[in-house]
Amino acid sequence: MFISLLWVFVITATYFVPDIQAKLTVGYSKLLIENLNTYDFPLRGIPDLIYMSTVCFMFMKIRLDKENSKK
Fold first, then answer.
1. Fewest C-beta atoms under 10 Å: which of 16, 20, 37, 46?
2. Helices 46-70 & 2-11, crossing angle to 10 degrees?
C-alpha cells in the first residue's frame, strides 16, 4: 500500500510537475495535454486504484471480523 502511494508521489514529482503541469501554467499546449491524457492514468491512476482497493479491503475485513466476533 505504501509502495503505491510512493510510486504516485515519485511519478508526479519527477514527471508530471516539471514536464507537464509547470509548462501548462505558462501557455496552452495541445501536445502537453495529450501527453497528460495518455500517461496520467497508466502511471498514476492504476497505483491509486490499487491503494483504494487495499483500503476498502482492509475496512471490509475489519467489519467482517467485528461481525464474526459478535456471534
1. 37
2. 160
pLDDT by 10-residue block (mean), the chain, 71 residues: 76 71 68 78 83 89 88 68
B/e letters for 9-48, b = 16+ CB within 10 Å, e = fewer, are eebeeeebeeebeeeeeeeeeeeeeeebeebeeeebeebe
| Rounded Cα gap, residues 32 and 43, in angstroms | 15
- pTM for this predicted structure: 0.56
Cell triple for residue 56?
476498502
